Amino acid sequence: MGIPERKEREKEQRRNAIVDAAEKIFFTKGFQESTMDDIANEAELSKGTLYLYFKSKEDLLFAVLIRGTVILNEILERVIDPDITGRDNLLIMADAFIKFSKEHNDHFNLFMRFQSKDLLALNINVDDVFAYLRDQSPLTILGAVVMKGISDGSLRNDIAPELLAATLWSQMLGILMVAYNKKDVYAAFGIDHEALAKVHLELVLNGIIPTNG
Amino acid sequence: MGIPERKEREKEQRRNAIVDAAEKIFFTKGFQESTMDDIANEAELSKGTLYLYFKSKEDLLFAVLIRGTVILNEILERVIDPDITGRDNLLIMADAFIKFSKEHNDHFNLFMRFQSKDLLALNINVDDVFAYLRDQSPLTILGAVVMKGISDGSLRNDIAPELLAATLWSQMLGILMVAYNKKDVYAAFGIDHEALAKVHLELVLNGIIPTNG
Amino acid sequence: MGIPERKEREKEQRRNAIVDAAEKIFFTKGFQESTMDDIANEAELSKGTLYLYFKSKEDLLFAVLIRGTVILNEILERVIDPDITGRDNLLIMADAFIKFSKEHNDHFNLFMRFQSKDLLALNINVDDVFAYLRDQSPLTILGAVVMKGISDGSLRNDIAPELLAATLWSQMLGILMVAYNKKDVYAAFGIDHEALAKVHLELVLNGIIPTNG
Amino acid sequence: MGIPERKEREKEQRRNAIVDAAEKIFFTKGFQESTMDDIANEAELSKGTLYLYFKSKEDLLFAVLIRGTVILNEILERVIDPDITGRDNLLIMADAFIKFSKEHNDHFNLFMRFQSKDLLALNINVDDVFAYLRDQSPLTILGAVVMKGISDGSLRNDIAPELLAATLWSQMLGILMVAYNKKDVYAAFGIDHEALAKVHLELVLNGIIPTNG
DNA sequence: AATGAATGAGCGTTCATTCAT
DNA sequence: AATGAATGAACGCTCATTCAT
C-alpha cells in the first residue's frame, strides 16, 4: 500500500506540469495563437498525453482560469482582518485586488474576459463549469466582509448585503477591466488605471454630491 | 449629370449592405467563428467583392464597431439637456446607456471587448484606428456634462473633470460589462444587471457610508 | 482622311505603352508574381483596357518575348559583315550574343526559358505562335552566315549548313543559359559565364584533341 | 527489438511513396498547376500527412529534383571505364547523358530548368540546398574523367581541367536543353536533338575549321 | 474605346483531435 | 500511461477574366 497514493501524486504532478506549460504558452502567445504542439513541447510530453489529462484545448484554458481564481481568492482571504471595520477591510481588499491586477495581470485579464456563456459554449465538462461558477467566486469572500461592515455600522444597511457586495465587486472588476482594455484611449486623455481606481473609491466612499461646510 | 452621384450612392449602399451582413454574422456566430464565406453568402455577393470594400475580415469588424459607437454617441447626445443640472443629466445618460446595453447588446458587447491594443494589432489602417480612438469616444460627450455639473454645483469640484468623467464612464461601462459577462454567476446569487446598475448609481450619488439622522 | 491613320497610330502607341508596362512589371516581379492590376497601374489604364489589346496575361508575356527577339535579331543583323569570312563573322555574332545576354539579361532569360510547348499550352492565339516560331528565329540569320562561311572555305563543308547553324546556335544559347541558371554552382567552382563562353568557342574552333607540333 | 528499425523503414517507405506521388503529379501537370490535394490523392494520404514529411510544396519538388540527380549521377558513374582514354570515356558519358535526357526526360527537364537562385528563394532549408549544390553536381564526376583525359594525352592540356569540364558539361546540358525547349522550332527546320548532339560532338572533337588534305 | 465593379474558383498551410501500438 | 503518426476540415485572401455602362 502507498503505491496507489504515489501514483495518484505523480498523476497530479504531471497534470500540474501540463497546466504550467499551458499557462506559459497561453500568456505568451495568446489562446488562439497557442497550439497544442506548443504546449506539448513546453511540457516535454507528447501531444497525445495532453489529452489524457484534459479533454480539449479549452479545458486546459479552464484549468489556467481556475488557477488564477485560486490565487485571487487566497490573496483576498489573506487580507481579511477581524479587528478592523468591514468598510476598512473592503478598502484593503480593493488595494489587494488592484495589486493582483498588476502582479498577475495575465490571470487578471483571463479572468476578465471570460464570459460565463463562453465557458458553457466551450468544449468542457458542464458540471465542472457550474461548480466553478458556484464555488470559486470571490463574491463569496466579499459578501462576508460586507455583511460584517453592515453589522458593525461602517456600511449602509439599506442595501441587501449580497447586492452590495456584488455591486462593489463589479465596480472594481469593471473599472480595472476598462482601464486596461481602453488603456490607449485613456492615455490620450492623460489618465491611468491607478488614478481611476482612486477616484472610484473616493466616489463610492463619499458620493459625488458636494458636501456642505 | 448626376451619374457619378448615383454611382457613389450605390457604392455606399453596397458597403452598407456588406456591413449589415457582417454584423448579422458576427453577432450570430462570433467573430472567430464567422467566415468570409458566411458573410458573402449573407450579403448575396461574391467573396471577392467583400475585398473590394474592405481590406480584411478585421476591417469589417472595425466597420461594425464604428457603427455601434455612432449609435451610442447619438443616443448620448440626444439626452443632453441644458435645462437640468449636470448631475441629473448624468443620471439620464446612465439610463440611456443601460438601455443601449440592452437594446444593442451585441454592439455593446463588441464595444466592451475591444481592447484598443487589439485594434492596433489588427489588419486595419492604423490611421483609421487612431482617428476612431480620438474622435469617437463617448468620453468626450460625457466630459462636457461633467464640466457643466461642476459649474452648476451639482457635482463635487474637488476632482478634475476629465478624471471624474473617465471614472464615471469606466464604472458604468465596467459594471455593465461585468454584469453581462458574469451573468450566470450573478444569476446564481439572484442578481441581475439592472439591480447592479441601480445600486451602483446610488453608491456613487450618496456614498457607501451610513448617513446620520 | 488621315483620321483612320491617326487612330491606328494611337492604337499602336497604346499597345506599346501596355507592353512597356508589362515588361517592366514582369522583369521586376517575375511573371507569376505579376498581376494584371500591377500592369494596369503601371500603364495608367484600367484593367479592362488591357483585355482590349491582349487576350490574356500570357499573351502579354508573348508580346514581351517578341520584343526581345526583335532586339536580338537587330543586333545580329547589325554585325553581319560581307567583307569578312563567315567564320569570323560567326565569332563576332557570338560576341554580340554574349553582349545581348548581359545587357538585355531579362529578355535573354525570358527567351531562354520559353519552351515552345509552353507557348502552345498558353492562352494565346496559336497562329501567332507558329508565325513567331517560323519567322522570328535568329536561326535564319545565322544560317545565312554559316552558308557564306562554307562557301568561302572558312567553315567545314561536311555538315549540312542548317544543321551546323542550329548546332552552333544551340551551343551558344545553351552554354549561356546554363551559365546563368547554374551561376551559383559554377561560382562554387570558380567559373563564370565569360570563361565558359571563351573556352567553348576555342573548342568549337579547334577541337578538343591535342594538336601535334 | 527490431521494432524501431521497422518503424524507421516504414517511415522511409511512406516518404518514398509521397515522392512517388509528387513526381507523378508534377511531371504530369507541371509544378505550378499541381496542388497538394492532387498529390495527397495520388498518394492516398491526407494532405496533412504530406506536411509531416515535407515542410512545403517546394520541399517536395526539391525531393524530386534530388531523386533525378541521383539517377543521373549513378548513370554517369556506371559508365566510367578505367581501361579507355578520358576522351573516349567522355564520349560514352555524353551518350549516357543523351540517353538519360530521353529516358528520364521529366527529370532532365526539371534539372534543366532549376535555376540555383530559384532553389534559394524557395521555402526549403537553405543548408539542404547548399549541400545539394555542392555535393550532387555531376560536374564532380565529369571533372575526374577530364583530368584523366589530360593525363593520358587524349585531351588538350592547355585548358584548366575544371574549366574544360564545366564547358563540356554546359555545352551538353545546354544543347539538349535548347533542343528540347525549342523542339518545335527545330522541327520546322527538320532538325532533331540527336542530330544536334551528334554534330555538336563532332565540332567539339575536331573543330569547325576545315582540315587540309 | 474605356472603365471598374463583380466574380468565384482556387490553394497552401494549420492544427485540434484520434487511435493503434 | 504514453506515444506520435495520421487525419481532414477549415479559411482568408488573390486575381485573371468578364461585362454592363
- According to CATH, what is the topology of the largest domain in chain A? Tetracycline Repressor, domain 2
Cα distance, first to last residue of chain A? 76 Å
Shape of chain A: globular
Oligomeric composition of the shown chains:
homotetramer
Q: What's the level 1 CATH class of the largest domain in chain A?
A: Mainly Alpha
What is the beta-strand fraction of chain A?
Answer: under 5%
Helix-strand makeup class of chain A: mainly alpha
CATH arch. level architecture of the largest domain in chain A? Orthogonal Bundle
Helical stretch count of chain A?
Answer: 12
Largest interface: A-B, 60 and 60 residues
> What average pLDDT do the residues of chain A reach?
87
Order of helices and strands of chain A: HHHHHHHHHHHH
Write the layout of secondary structure elements.
The structure is a homotetramer of 213-residue chains.
Chain A lengths: L2 H27 L6 H8 L3 H7 L3 H22 L7 H18 L1 H9 L2 H6 L4 H10 L2 H14 L9 H21 L1 H6 L4 H14 L7
Helix pairs in contact in A: 1-2, 1-4, 4-6, 5-6, 5-9, 9-10, 10-12
Chain B binds a DNA duplex (21 and 21 nucleotides) through helix 1, helix 2 and helix 3.
Give a verbal description of the structure:
- Chain A is an all-alpha fold.
- Chain A folds into 2 domains: 1-54, Homeodomain-like (Arc Repressor Mutant, subunit A), CATH 1.10.10.60; 55-206, Tetracycline Repressor, domain 2 (Orthogonal Bundle).
- Helix content of chain A is 76%, strand content 0%.
- Chain A contains 12 helices and no strands.
- Chain A has helices at residues 3-29, 36-43, 47-53, 57-78, 86-103, 105-113, 116-121, 126-135, 138-151, 161-181, 183-188, 193-206.
- In chain A, helix 10 packs antiparallel against helix 12 (193-206).
- Chain A is globular, with a radius of gyration of 20 Å.
- The first copy, chain A, starts with a helix and ends in a 7-residue tail after the last helix.
- The model of chain A has no long low-confidence stretch (mean pLDDT 87).
- At the A-B interface, helix 7, helix 10, helix 11 and helix 12 of A face helix 7, helix 10, helix 11 and helix 12 of B.
